[in-house]
Amino acid sequence: MHTVAILAPDGVSAFDLSIPCQVFAVARRPDGAPAYEVRVCAERSVTATAGALEPFRISAPYGMADALGADTVVVPGGHVDLVPHPDTIRVVREAAAAGARIASICTGAFVLAQAGLLNGRRATTHWRFAGRLADRFPEVEVDAAVLYVDEGQILTSAGIAAGIDLCLYMVRRDHGAAAAAEVARMVVMAPQRSGGQAQFMEHPDPGTDPESLAETLQWMRENLHRPLSVADIAAHAAFSRRSLARHFRAQTGTTPLRWLLNLRLQRVRELLETTDLPVSRIAAGTGFGSVETLRHHFSREVGTTPTAYRAAFRV
After folding, report:
1. pLDDT one-digit tens code per residue, 172-209
2. pTM for this structure?
3. Looking at domain 2-186, what is its CATH homologous superfamily?
4. What is the pLDDT of residues 219-250, one digit of tens each?
5. What superkingdom does the record give (predicted)?
C-alpha cells in the first residue's frame, strides 16, 4: 500500500496538517479498501498554531524517522521565520534521495527550499509570502499565481486551502479521477478548481498608487488573443523592462510572461469546460496561436491534454 507520511514539525499549522490527513485517509480503492496508509510523524509533542489562537500541543503516533521509507512525504506549513529543525531537513532530504514524492502545503515550501529540493525548480507558496521565498531562495522559480506546481517528484501548493487542491491532484494522479472525485465529495470540494490564487492577492489601489499595475493587468486580460511581449507590457505600463519585472514580482509574485501564461491557461480551461469550440479556435483566441503550442503548455501545466480535460470536466 502507498504510504503517506505527514510531518508535524514544531510550530506546524493545524489546518495545513489536517488537510493531507483528511484527504488521504478517506481515499478509497474501487473495492472500498483504503488507498493509503497515513502516518503523522513528529519527534515529540509539538506546538501547533491556528491563526490568532494560543498555540496548543499535539502528539503524533509516529516519530520523524518513521517518514523514511514512505512513498509520499507531505510537509505542512508553519511560521515562515521559524528555522526548521535539522531533523526535519534531514528527513526531507533523505526521503527525496530515496525516491519518495515530496509535497509541501502553503509555507511548507520554505522547508523544501531550505533542504535544497526546490533549487532550479518552479514552486509556489501562499501569495503573501511568495516574494519572501523568492528573495530568500533566489535559485527557486517562484510562481505565486497558481494553486499548485507539479515538478515531478517535488510538488508545492499555494496558500492553505490550495493544499486540498494539491492533495486531490495527487489522489487523481495515483488512483484516477473517480477516486479523487469521491474524496472531493466527502470533503465538499470541487474535484479541480480553475484559476489560481492571483484572484485572492491584494493589489494597490490604482487611484492612490501611481506604480500600480492594475490597469496593465486588466489590459493583458483583455488582449489575451494578441502575442504580447515583455516589451509590449512594459510600454503599456510606462516602465522599463527591468522596472516592470521588479514591480510585477512585487505586485503579483511572478514574472509578466508567467502571469500571462497562467491567465491564458485559465481561460483555456474555462472554454474547454463551458463551450464546444474547437481546440484550434481556443488556441487562437487565447494567444497560443497553434494547437501544438497550446497542447505543449497545457500538458506541462495541467498534466493532461486539452481533449482529455474537456472529456473529464465539460459542464
Report:
1. 889 887 888 889 888 877 666 655 555 445 444 444 45
2. 0.67
3. Class I glutamine amidotransferase (GATase) domain (3.40.50.880)
4. 998 999 999 999 999 999 999 999 998 888 87
5. Bacteria
